[in-house]
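Supplementary Data S3. Sequence and structure tokens for construct A.
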Amino acid sequence: MKWALLVCLRPFAARLNVPRGATFEDCVADGSVIAGTPQRVRDEIERQVGELGVNYLLTYLFLGTMTLEEALRSLSLFASEVMPRLVQL
């Protein structure tokens, strides 16, 4: 995985209903996880913000078996390529 970002944009009650043992792929499919290139992450955050009207963003940039180097790279990409565009939301 080159870059991953977990974003909780779903309503709180919906997050509580994530089935125990749900896979990463299940979470990506239901929208509770956003992962991919910075462009894909920006696009999906913008789409979900538009649909849900959220006013805050909670991210998890250090997931599963990621190394510290991978997590720091994700943080750097998020800070430089995703956050500047989110300010406009």
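Construct B, processed identically:
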Amino acid sequence: MLQINLANLSFCLLTSILITTLSVLIFSSQIVWILDAQTVGNTESKKVVILNFDDGRKSQFTQAKPILDKYGFKATFYVVCNYLDGNKKGYMNWTDIEALHKDGQDIESHTMNHHNLSDSSKNSLEYQIGESKACLREHGIDATSFAYPFDQGWDNKTVVKVVSKYYDLARTASSPVTFLHCDGWIHKSHQNDCSIYTKDGKLNYANKYSIRGWSHDLSRIQNSYNDTALYDRFLQVVNSQSQYNKNGTINAIPIIIYHQESNQDTDYTTDLDLFDKEMKYLHDGNFIVLTMADLAYNNKDNYLYIK
């Protein structure tokens, strides 16, 4: 009788162990499948955008920043040093700039006086480009990137030589996306990396000192867009990266350039409701919002990358 009970007990224990093991294996495989699905989903849907604000207008601090804060975004603010502290009406003061910097916003250089660099003397270039870096350093800000006023100077060797003395990167305009390997402008260039110069010493069309952005406000002016049309164009620009970024690899990034955020109907101004709507779209679409400080350059292989 005892032998039968032991046999039955052994059979029950073995059955229990087998059922438990099978359950664990099934549960584990489900967890692995879920994690894999999330990883693939997140990777394939990854979209990136960089936000820029040029010139240092007061509305960027009083109107745009609260909306950026609302969605948890950081941006790059390219400031013109001699426009600040009441030197030009409608622009930030150093208290504003320092508050942005303390908050983790990226503060970078946009010259001393917003001069067109393409027709400036060498002395003027040193002042506009070099002194603006020193100006920011006096306020505890180490500027590592530069933005050309009026989209001028990026194709001038003399200008680029001075810029390269003081900055790691420089941004211009005129393109919906910038290509991290500088290889996407097939109608302008046949490059396969971001080397500054060609073999015969000419400037390459695309390099780390001609990173391209899309001017949101200039696009309105050039195309006579109303808010609805400009929003539609914004959607096209931020989503245009999808044709270049595949399987989680980021090859192209839209850089959106704003100037003034206000409900006033003036040039280079984005309506506040429109700006909020655009930021909400990025937030709800799970875009990764970066600053120019998040970009770096591989000097060995000559390409841009996200840090």
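The first strand starts at residue 48 and ends at 55. The longest helix spans residues 2-44.
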